[in-house]
Amino acid sequence: MSFLNNIKIAVIGGGSWATALIKILCEQNNVQIRWWLRNQRDIEHIRKFHHNPSYLSDVVLSPKKIKVFEKTTEAVRGADYVILAVPAAFVQEALRDLSGKHLQGKRIVSAIKGMVPDQNMLITDWISKEFGIDLHETCVIAGPCHAEEVALEKQSYLSIASTECPSAEDFAKLMTCRYVTANPLDDLYGVEYAAVMKNIIALACGITHGLGYGDNFQAVLVSNAMQEIGNFVTALDPRERNMSSSAYLGDLLVTAYSQFSRNRLFGNMIGRGYSVKAAQLEMKMIAEGYYATKSITEMNKIHHVSLPITNAVYRILYEEQAPGMVMDELKKLLK
Ligand SMILES: NC(=O)C1=CN([C@@H]2O[C@H](COP(=O)(O)OP(=O)(O)OC[C@H]3O[C@@H](n4cnc5c(N)ncnc54)[C@H](OP(=O)(O)O)[C@@H]3O)[C@@H](O)[C@H]2O)C=CC1
Ligand SMILES: O=C(CO)COP(=O)(O)O
Predict the structure, then answer these.
(1) How does pLDDT run across 117-153, given as a tens digit for each residue?
(2) Interatomic CA distance for residues 98 and 94, integer angstroms
(3) CATH superfamily to which 195-333 belongs
(4) How many whole angstroms from its chain centre is CA 179?
(5) Cα–Cα dist 106/77, whole Å
(6) What is the predicted ipTM?
(7) Which of 148, 169, 178, 187 has the fewest CB atoms within 10 Å, counting from its CB?
(8) Which option is the CATH number for 7-186: 3.30.70.20, 3.30.450.20, 3.40.50.720, 3.40.50.300?
(9) Is 206 flagged in the annotation as binding?
(10) Domain limits of the chain?
(11) How far is the CA of 87 from the centre of ligand 1 (A)?
(12) Is residue 39 lining ligand 1, measured as CB closer than 6 Å?
């Protein structure tokens, strides 16, 4: 039996990223997808019309390959892989019916770019602790990649990170298709932390754009951000890594510059004068960077890395300081 035969993959989450990942997986022969979404109306619509009515609604969802479930316990039954694709803030709620016995023996893949709130833990660490899963049995899907471009079948790249390359390699094969190339790498923590932090930077890009700053400023902001991300990642998990590769710099660039970035859009609204509440109400989608800003700031009380951009975003989002004034101060620190 070849590696790609009859692989069962549970996908937990019903948003844009879950829908895009399912589209990629459906490109493989002999893959069965067991999909859990929380929204009963969406479940019924998908079963009947084979489209997700709420996210990426143009994507055709093959009924031959996909079974939709109301319960996570049913979705993960018999699965070889379980992909988590809910926003980090809701991961505990989404997995509340599952225990270690449901997940034992399965590879757990986090497609989440965020941290478990309050506990300020990476998703893979939390899965390992909460469900007794060996960290080597987990991996993460990072970018640079937006769901909307996958839906349009635009050439995209994914980074699949695990503690050891061979286990990322298996999963990368499943995520590679005509329009997606998935590359494995052995830097679980580095990729996961960088993916969390780039969302904060995208917020900063959006805020400054909303305030009227231009491309010249953003280029300097993003360059400084790369240093900030690198310093934080190294403090948390010191080792050699090429921060200018796609898994780190690429993931930052796509989110900082793309029209599809949720975090940039959210930041842009804040820069234009929306309150956090108003911006959240206006955006149907979730900007992970909002939650990540709090987690990274709290974690950094122990690590004391210089994080001027993250601090600026924290002051704006959580201390209600005026974006214009905070960015005036930040711009003096950038080089
Ligand atoms: N979109 C992208 O291009 C990429 C996203 N990611 C990551 O994927 C993860 C999922 O994001 P994405 O798919 O974009 O999210 P979306 O913003 O597209 O969708 C939000 C999802 O969250 C659910 N949700 C909202 N509120 C709650 C709640 N209170 N409890 C439980 N679920 C809730 C929504 O369910 P409902 O519709 O029922 O409200 C929906 O399924 C994030 O960590 C993101 O960073 C990573 C790479 C690319
Ligand atoms: O992580 C993502 C793309 O790599 C999605 O986040 P944004 O939508 O904010 O860019």
Answers:
(1) 989 999 999 999 999 999 999 999 998 999 999 999 9
(2) 9
(3) N-(1-d-carboxylethyl)-l-norvaline Dehydrogenase; domain 2 (1.10.1040.10)
(4) 20
(5) 10
(6) 0.97
(7) 178
(8) 3.40.50.720
(9) no
(10) 7-186, 195-333
(11) 5
(12) yes
